[in-house]
Design brief:
The protein is of the alpha/beta class. It contains eight helices and seven strands; from the N terminus they run E-H-E-H-E-E-H-E-H-H-H-E-H-H-E.
Length: 234
């Protein structure tokens, strides 16, 4: 770089805790566009998910932080959508995701990936209960038109989690959406509150998500499915 040449601003930092499956990691990294304003940080084999995330946060230089599992991948158009919010002052931009059922490499079931996926399994059950309760409350207190039970892209029925996004349910998504990857978080927001992951204990992901959910003052909810969560099957 020439002495007087301005440095390129890094807009997005992607942090991926890596286990041992290079093939799935490659798919994940390949789904992230190669751009001058994008950096990908892969943290290899630490003692805990929390430690891996904290290492990534310390290395990250982007305006926005995104977390991903090595077994998952982003949708083709996801960064085009997020670019629309790149220069906004939102603390968090949430986006929906697809669940992809596929047979996984045995090594993926270990370390950070399996820990987070177990959290998600429990969370999805809890979200279903919350969404069902919210639906009952809404139906009994308002006469306004309800959200369609079908996704606007076709006749596929919405699951309970999709309904939270379709209704832009801020409280449900802020506190009960315990999936760490379907959001981008403004780095200044993380630094302002000195947010980090606990490096011990089984609940570090949930505590982190609840912490940022409670501290965020301004959030944006997108129903676009920009992430693909890989759910293992036998």
């Amino acid at each position: 770089m020439k002495p007087n040449e301005p440095t390129m601003t890094c807009n997005y930092s992607f942090i991926i805790p890596h286990t041992s499956n290079s093939e799935s990691l490659k798919r994940c990294v390949d789904s992230i566009p190669e751009r001058d304003d994008v950096e990908v940080i892969v943290v290899d084999k630490t003692k805990s998910v929390g430690q891996a995330m904290n290492i990534g946060l310390k290395r990250a230089t982007g305006k926005w932080i995104l977390l991903s599992l090595p077994s998952d991948f982003y949708s083709d158009y996801f960064l085009d959508v997020l670019d629309e919010y790149r220069d906004t002052d939102y603390d968090i931009v949430f986006f929906n995701y697809n669940t992809i059922k596929e047979k996984m490499h045995p090594s993926v079931s270990s370390s950070s990936t399996s820990i987070i996926k177990r959290i998600v399994t429990r969370t999805m059950t809890f979200i279903s209960r919350i969404a069902s309760f919210t639906t009952k409350i809404l139906s009994s207190t308002t006469k306004t038109s309800s959200v369609s039970e079908n996704d606007s892209r076709g006749s596929e029925p919405l699951n309970q989690y999709d309904k939270l996004f379709a209704k832009r349910d801020k409280e449900g998504i802020r506190y009960y959406n315990l999936c760490p990857w379907n959001r981008m978080i403004r780095r200044n927001f993380i630094d302002k509150y000195n947010i980090s992951f606990e490096e011990t204990g089984k609940d570090s992901i949930n505590k982190y998500i609840r912490q940022i959910g409670s501290l965020a003052k301004d959030i944006k909810i997108l129903n676009d499915k920009l992430y693909n969560y890989s759910s293992s099957v036998d």
